Predict the structure.
Amino acid sequence: MSGKKRVVITGIGALSPLGHDVETVLDSLRAETNKVQRMAEWADYEGLNTQVGVPCAPFELPADRYNRKSMRSMGRVAQMATRSAELALQQAGLFGDPLVTSGRMGVSFGSSSGTPSAVGDFGRMMSAKSIEGINANTYVKMMSHTATVNIAVFFGITGRIITTSSACTSGSQGLGYAFEAVQSGKQVAMLAGGAEELDPTQAAVFDTLFATSTQYNDQPRLTPRPFDKDRDGLVLGEGACTFVLEEYEHAKARGAHILGEIVGYGTNCDGTHVTQPQSATMAGAMRLALADASLPPEAIPYVNAHGTSTDQGDVAESQATQAVLGSRVAISSLKSYMGHTLGACGALEAWMTLEMMKAGWFAPTLNLRQVDPRCGELDYVLGGGRKIETEYAMTNNFAFGGINTSLILRRLD
């Protein structure tokens, strides 16, 4: 760790299916009921098999700042991203602070894609041979880094921009690369995280891979079922989450309230197949995070799993976790509550992991009745959750293309 700067968390803003503040989210987790619902409008799409999703809880955008001019380049994903960044800056006491526009703060943020309806506008152009409906902001709403640059423009950020459009690891890579930017001294602070909006086109992507939940369309609360032998696929959700990551001495000097610390990050690639996860390289990412944090496996009593409820993913991930941390480690998946929020999941799950760690209680995996015997031998957290007092916890995410990430969080009292 010599020469590396400590990276602390001084603000978190979130818009999630479970709520937008710590108390509401923890209450939702303790209630042990998910927010999955039947998406009535999806029935209009012929051939779309999955009919369940998890919309973000309702939220408002302050009219004095979010107006026609400031939002003209924003689709829903960018709106959620920008609002979550604003909430994070406010909590950190940096909203309107000169640091934000000084060049010493940057943005590391991602989503799987831009706003799908903007993509549809270009699709109609190609089929109709007409640019009717296309305007100067259509591409800006569509582009994969729309959330990242809209955050930067909205707040006047002039530091480095890192765009992490890497599907399900967009949020975790957003945090990881921001962590490295501050750790190395390249930036004093970073806005970091991910966002995603719920859309039937994204459901169709996973539908074609036979990776969506289809058996519980009429009983939405019974899915997803991470690690369960009767799981039948993932359920999509939406949301946004932004962290303010800050160099420790800078945060301390300005009297910031420190929420926690990131101490380790590991990322790698399977390098073999786009959609077939590899347990060995998943384990490698976890080992990289442990090495980065200078921690032994025994220091991690709980892992927040990626836990998508897909057939191959759950098996590979759980076996990798056992290989690195052993069968004693407690594990659960928050996707059983809010679905797979794609680009947002890495950041939302890191936030909720930190809050559970501070509460000394970790939520169980919902709908886990009988662990698939092919899954790794782990301490799967079931009904009632688990009281664990720990200084460290790990949260993992894995994405199309074989992209693997592992973050280690530290609770600071």
